[in-house]
Amino acid sequence: MQTIQEAGKTLFAAFERGELALPGRRTLFRERDWQPHSQFAGVALKHLLTAADTGGAFSYHLVRVEPGCAIGEHIHATQQETHEVIAGAGVCRNQNADIVYRAGVISLIEPGARHAVTAGEEGLLLFAKFIPSLL
């Protein structure tokens, strides 16, 4: 039987290889490359759905944070952001409060809120969604 962490990693991998399925249109996520974050070492993103897919309404991203690495403090002025923790562990600093991240946690970050995420010793795998679209 799989542990929760193993199941989370399996789910995350399924989305890496998944697809956007719409009537008459199919986009394979394996064709979208992982991108190293432009500012934060040890952080990579795979942009599953972008403004081009949703008319700017929202975007959806896989996020991989290596053990001990962090998405440093930043603000999204106009986007509401959610994090769905799939595997690993860490801490999100959201508006001066620490939120423990573990598999199954969903966190909401309001537009204009200062926030940062630090991965624990296992690293951190999460889905991040932005409304309206970040990209």
Write up what this structure looks like.
- The chain starts with a helix and ends with a strand.
- A hairpin with a 2-residue loop joins strand 1 and strand 2.
- It is mainly beta.
- 13% of the residues lie in helices and 53% in strands.
- It is globular, with a radius of gyration of 15 Å.
- The longest helix is centred in the N-terminal third of the chain and has 13 residues, at 4-16.
- Strands 3, 4, 5, 6, 7, 8, 9 and 10 form an 8-stranded antiparallel beta sheet that branches. A two-stranded antiparallel ribbon has the order 1-2.
- It has 2 helices and 10 strands.
How is the biggest beta sheet arranged? Answer: 8 strands, antiparallel
Helix percent band: 10-25%
Whole-angstrom Rg = 15 Å
SSE run: HEEEEHEEEEEE
Structural class: mainly beta
- Give the CA-based shape: globular
Low-confidence stretches: none
Average residue pLDDT: 94
Number of helices: 2
Number of DSSP strand runs: 10
Strand content: over 45%
Distance between termini?
38 Å
Keywords:
135 residues, mainly beta, eight-stranded antiparallel β-sheet, two-stranded antiparallel sheet, 2 helices, 10 strands
